[in-house]
Amino acid sequence: MKRTRVKICGITRQEDAWAAIDAGADALGFVFYATSPRAVTASQAQAIMKTLPPYISKVGLFVNAAAAEVQQVVAETSLDCLQFHGDEAADYCEKFNLPYYKAIRVKPELNLIQCELDFASASALLLDTFSEKAVGGTGQTFDWTLIPAGMQKPVILAGGLNPDNVTQALQQVQPYAVDVSGGVEAQKGIKSQEKITAFMQLVMQQDAIRNRAV
Ligand SMILES: O=C(O)c1ccccc1NCC(=O)[C@H](O)[C@H](O)COP(=O)(O)O
């Protein structure tokens, strides 16, 4: 029985965290990147994290942050995992004694098999949309045919997913997990309970169809 994991990223409010958990999400993302409209401080994030039940993964997102900044956030929060969304190298990502995902902003000329080798220590690769305008949270999809068959690491599909396109994404890519932020928002930084629920139901529906077929 296969199940697609779901991370809801860009959590800024306790009620949004709980809307995601109640709908069945596996992981919550907290953005520690000051220029993002979804940015939280360590103390804001920890105030939310301490209300969460067990078995929900708390992921801290950083973009080219100084190592000391990451260390401080790790010390002040109960993060389970780190997500590096900038140009970080593997030896930097490995410094923090926590599992990490490396976000790769996909472009046609990029060799994703080489990325898996470059980030051999990563728990997963998170494939997101490349944009000149923003490092992440673009709300735009990328060309999923650029993902090669036979990737060895778990693939977390991100970038512009929403209730209108997640079914097609799951059918086409069959990723280990999907990651969504803007597609389940009412406005930037504020999640919509209805959109989260719709998104989760579609993922579960697709999993049920896939499991019936095998
Ligand atoms: O959300 C942001 O503002 C952000 C800023 C800088 C780097 C990454 C950022 N977000 C990444 C995510 O929320 C997700 O991991 C993923 O990229 C999905 O975003 P979206 O396209 O909005 O679904």
Automatic annotation (TrEMBL):
Pathway it works in: Amino-acid biosynthesis; L-tryptophan biosynthesis; L-tryptophan from chorismate: step 3/5
First-level EC class: isomerase
Record SUPFAM superfamilies: Ribulose-phoshate binding barrel
Annotated N-(5'phosphoribosyl) anthranilate isomerase (PRAI) domain residues: 6-201
Keywords recorded for this protein, A-Z: Amino-acid biosynthesis, Aromatic amino acid biosynthesis, Isomerase, Tryptophan biosynthesis
Catalytic activity field: N-(5-phospho-beta-D-ribosyl)anthranilate = 1-(2-carboxyphenylamino)-1-deoxy-D-ribulose 5-phosphate
Annotated GO MF terms: phosphoribosylanthranilate isomerase activity
EC number: 5.3.1.24
HAMAP family reported for this sequence: PRAI
Homology family: Belongs to the TrpF family.
NCBIfam families xrefs: PRK01222.1-4, PRK01222.1-6
The protein, known as: N-(5'-phosphoribosyl)anthranilate isomerase
Organism this protein belongs to: Methylophilus flavus
